[in-house]
Each structure stands twice: as C-alpha cells, then as structure tokens.
Specification:
The strands form two sheets. The protein has a six-stranded antiparallel beta sheet with strand order 1-2-3-10-5-8. The chain has a four-stranded antiparallel beta sheet with strand order 4-9-6-7, with no helix packed on it. Helix 2 crosses helix 4 (52-62). It is globular. A hairpin with a 6-residue loop joins strand 2 and strand 3. By secondary structure, the protein is of the alpha+beta class. 24% of the residues lie in helices and 30% in strands.
C-alpha cells in the first residue's frame, strides 16, 4: 500500500487542482460536498487525513473518481498498477475490506475498480449515488446478497450483476462463507449549471 504521507500530499495537490479546474471557491465546494470549509483547507494544506466518507463526498462533488483524487491518473495508453500501489479504502474488525485497485478519468467518465471482502454477517449500506451511476460486480467466493431499492437478489460465486445505483442499495453477506467480489463503478461526470451550489448525492462506505 502507498505511504500515508504520500497519499496525503497527493490528495492535497489534486483537490486544489480539481477545485480550481471546476471554478469552485472553498465555500462552493463545501456546500456541494457537505464538508466544512475548515476541513477542505486542512486537506489542501496536507494537514488533515480525511475519512473515506469525506473523500467520497469531495470526489462526488467534483465529479471525479476517488482514484483521481489519490493521484492514480492514466498514462498515454497502458498503465500498470502493482499490488503495492493499491489503496485500502476501508476495513472492519471483522475482516471485511474494500481495496481500490485502479481508477481512471477516461473520456471524462470517472471509473473505479475495487476488490471487496465481506465477512459473514457484515455488509455495506449506501444511499443513492449520483443519477446514472452504474456498478458492475463479479462474485468469486461465497453468496452475496445484493439489495436494490428494497429488493434482495442472491448473487452466488461465479455470477455477475449490473446495478444502476442511483437508488438505495446494499451489499451483504448473510451466509457463513466469506464473500469475495470485484466491483467496478462508472460515475457520471458533473454537469455544471448556473446552480453551482446544488448538492449532489453521495456514495458511502462501511464505517464512513
């Protein structure tokens, strides 16, 4: 995993960059993201290590992927990300975790690829993501319970699923075997209008 100080510096640099490119003042970004102005200042000055939830809110407000904020930017054609450069985004005492494998801003559409481990009895509940957000997943071990807008879908090992995740949704492990899955997300870019302070929906992660 990358050094924490390196991630802090990358986040500071990229948050300043993308806030400038979007033309957001500190107050405008704070209003869109639901994050305090002081927190944003602390992050941009590399004095604060924000939670996963805060990083997600800032990425959604800027219309970029988490990977872009953490400086995992695309090369000209091919970019390899060694195992040591992946980023553990969250984990639980029970053994669940989410690891950001790679991300990109190709064609203006933020995309992320993550590896999730869900221990028996654990899961992640999420509010609706920005309209049009799509998630692709493939389960390699265990039986995942996918909940979308109140409807439960069992997803056994070897099965894939597509979820338009602009509704309340959850990923749960209701079984007695650890669930392993790969999760890809495509996040619609921010559409800027005169209503620059409109608050977008946010993604969430366990413990955020």
């Amino acid at each position: 995993m990358p050094d924490l100080d390196q991630l802090t510096q990358s986040l500071a640099r990229n948050l300043r960059r993308w806030r400038g490119e979007r033309g957001f003042t500190l107050d405008a970004l704070a209003a869109r993201a639901g994050v305090s102005r002081g927190m944003i200042i602390g992050i941009e000055q590399a004095r604060t290590n924000p939670s996963v939830g805060t990083t997600v809110k800032l990425a959604d407000a800027l219309g970029v992927s988490i990977a872009v904020l953490l400086d995992q930017e695309p090369g000209p054609r091919v970019r390899l990300v060694p195992a040591g450069e992946t980023v553990r985004m969250w984990s639980t005492p029970g053994g669940s975790s989410g690891v950001l494998l790679v991300g990109t801003e190709a064609s203006g559409v933020p995309m992320e690829l993550m590896a999730w481990t869900l221990a028996p009895g654990e899961g992640s509940v999420s509010d609706p993501h920005p309209e049009g957000t799509t998630e692709l997943l493939h389960v390699t071990a265990g039986v995942l319970t996918l909940v979308a807008d109140g409807v439960e879908y069992p997803v056994p090992a070897g099965t894939s699923a597509v979820l338009v995740s602009d509704v309340p949704h959850a990923y749960r492990n209701d079984g007695d075997q650890t669930v392993l899955m790969t999760l890809a997300s495509a996040i619609p870019p921010v559409r800027f209008t005169s209503d620059a302070l409109r608050t977008p929906a946010h993604r969430s992660a366990p413990g955020s």
